[in-house]
Specification:
With 146 residues, the protein is of the alpha+beta class. The chain contains five helices and six strands; from the N terminus they run αβββαββααβα. β4 (81-88) and β5 form a beta hairpin.
């Protein structure tokens, strides 16, 4: 799998859970530096999601432009998220991270920082993702107040 395939899986699950949802993929670092990969809207709730994927045991890169965008969006009342799929000691883990934690993660020098600092709102393993984890992720993102 790659980050692109991870986003495709998200889109598939989104349409299963919210058939009338609207998803826009944004991949334009020149015209929109730092803007998250996906803009997702369902039932009147709009969120932006930055996807991260790492299979080498290292924390995924978070660019300074992403940190700046997240900080501005949060200041304006937005609720962006990071959704990451990371291989940790031979186990795939899925991290749902509230956007306010992006600075901590940008400074992380190891995967342990993603786990131990409490940066993730919720961590799912592969079994959980296959038995309701996607529903939980969408439920958390769609809540108007966390």
């Amino acid at each position: 799998m790659s980050e692109a395939k991870f986003v495709e899986l998200f889109e598939k699950r989104a349409k299963e859970i919210y058939p009338d949802s609207h998803i826009s993929r944004i991949e334009s670092p020149i015209t929109a530096p730092g803007y998250p990969d996906v803009d997702f809207c369902a039932r009147g709730v709009n969120v932006q999601i930055e996807f991260k994927y790492s299979e080498n045991g290292l924390p995924p890169e978070i660019r300074p432009t992403q940190v700046r965008w997240f900080k501005k969006r949060i200041k304006a009342g937005g609720r962006p998220f990071i959704l990451a799929k990371i291989l940790v000691e031979d186990e795939w883990l899925y991290f749902l991270v509230l956007g306010g934690n992006i600075e901590n993660l940008a400074r992380a020098s190891s995967i342990n920082a993603w786990i131990s600092r409490g940066s993730a709102y919720r961590i799912f393993d592969e079994d959980e993702m296959n038995t309701g984890g996607w529903f939980s992720i969408f439920h958390i993102m769609m809540k108007r107040i966390l």
